[in-house]
Amino acid sequence: LYLDHPLAQGQTVQLPAAQAHYLSGVMRLPAGTVLSVFDGRSGEFDATILQANKRGGELEIGELTRPFQPPPDLWLAFAPIKKARTDFIVEKAVEMGAARILPVLTEFTNSERVRVDRLQAHAVEAAEQCGGTFVPEVAEPVKLAKLLDGWPGGRRLMFCDERLVGETGELPDLPGPWAVLVGPEGGFSQAERTRLRKLDGAHPVSLGPRILRADTAAVAALTLWQHRLGD
Ligand code: SAM
Fold first, then answer.
1. Ligand 1 atom showing the smallest separation from residue 213 Cα
2. Alpha-carbon span 202 to 199, nearest angstrom
3. What interface predicted TM-score (ipTM) does this complex get?
């Protein structure tokens, strides 16, 4: 269970109504039950339910059972697509160990309004499900041009491009912080491709000869990066 509160052994933590209701009303866990909790920055702890009902509850934080494990410094930047597929991308990015998730608005991005609070809640659920001790931040959507104008020097960009001609498109084995960029279903415009290629530290990378859906491409790109450069 994720608690939005810095945790330490011996503390008593108040549970918000929604989480207390989940434990008591949905999971039907009685007082005295021991659970695993994490706060995204201090590791995972045992915690005992002191009391919980639909209005609120209390947990007593026990021993640290797993130390905090920050993910590698990898961002996933992606153009939001349909709601369910965007949720899928966020969920898989958390499972694949992305440290930051950035929705990026490109020329051909064609999606409903991006609800960052909803995506952040999906990131929390995914971290709970995969046993992570870290929850990546989902950033506010940003236009691609603005993102590139303020691109942090030294961060490499794995720019996933299905239209590489006469290039190997291999992910170079270079150290340093990285970001993966995946385009929308309509792909990147020619102007965006040109701009991306001019970015210092950008590496156009192929994910194979077939055109992958954007959600598949995000998972494939993160897998490739983790395989070559991750830990
Ligand atoms: N509209 C494009 C087209 O038909 O040519 C396809 C875009 S694809 C569905 C969505 C995104 O996934 C692309 O912008 C790219 O970032 C990524 N992608 C898909 N297949 C890829 C591949 N084989 N290599 C690299 N990137 C790929």
1. 9
2. 5
3. 0.98
